[in-house]
Amino acid sequence: MIPSLREVYKEHFRIGAAVSPITIKTQKDLLVSHVNSITAENHMKFEHLQPKEGEFTFEQADEIVHFALSNNMVVRGHTLVWHNQTPPWMFYDREGKVVGKELLFERLKAHISTVIQRYKGKVYCWDVVNEAVADEGNDLLRISRWSEIAGMEFIEKAFLYAREADPNALLFYNDYNESFPEKREKIYKLVKSLLEKHIPVDGIGLQAHWSLTRPTLEEIRLAIERYASLGVQLHITELDISMFEFDDHRNDLIKPTDQMVDKQAERYDQIFSLFKEYSDVIRNVTFWGIADDYTWLDNFPVKQRKNWPFLFDENHQPKPAFWKVCTC
Ligand SMILES: Oc1ccccc1CN[C@@H]1C=C[C@@H](O)[C@H](O)[C@H]1O
């Protein structure tokens, strides 16, 4: 019997995993043993919940929520507004012209209130807006359908509609590359400006799609401290530690090298020590999966390239990284 991650960390923060309707079956034993928070990796995104205007398809999201609640796990809602995986109908009117912001906000309100009210009291927090900040350049916001039509206002409206739909749900802004200084300062500036306008942001989600070397521990520490200085809580929302650097497109391995496995173990050990140090502000640490048999990194940034980013291997056995992390 191996230690339960959820039990080891219960005084610090929740331990979560992203799931699909398939992995709640194929990875059920690991999930039930180790996590107390669940996120739908894809099935609560806009394109999955409202593929056509007015036609909501909740079956698979319901299945995931039912799995979580019947196993005494909470649910993180991911995600209400994002530039990816949003159906094109959202941005065009009946004549096929790009919508103005009034119609966009009307549709946004309909989506958010329908979805949040369905899961009121079941989904305890929402990634209301995902990845609105630009990676490069001087612009604060990334260029997207959302920002082209409505500038910053779509972000403000999304949080206001979400608060109106469920006053008890915690509302998060979620992003990646969140620990790199340039993007950290943009995320900080965005959330600070929202808070100054009394937009109800309760937390910042640090996706934490990290590699064996980047971001550095110091960069992660500085990001935690910077975001926490806004008085919001933090969730680690999509943790995985890629065996490959972002620009390393090698595709020759059928299993990780021993050096990779050992480096990953050391990396997870250091990262969880840091999370524990800040467990007063970090309230949830969610992996973007749970075992190496399934990860989105098998197709990103290199298509059809196997990766091994988690604490459990393809056979759901604990890796050296697990044994480093499971002692609190
Ligand atoms: O790490 C990145 C690099 C470039 C673009 C997006 C990301 C991360 N983007 C995440 C990854 C997978 C999706 O399932 C999540 O919904 C999304 O938030």
UniProtKB/TrEMBL annotation:
The keyword Hydrolase applies. Its EC number is 3.2.1.8. The keyword Hydrolase applies. GO terms for molecular function: endo-1,4-beta-xylanase activity. PROSITE patterns: GH10_1, GH10_2. Residues 1-328 form the GH10 domain. Keywords: Carbohydrate metabolism, Glycosidase, Hydrolase, Polysaccharide degradation, Xylan degradation. Pathway: Glycan degradation; xylan degradation. Belongs to the glycosyl hydrolase 10 (cellulase F) family. This is Beta-xylanase.
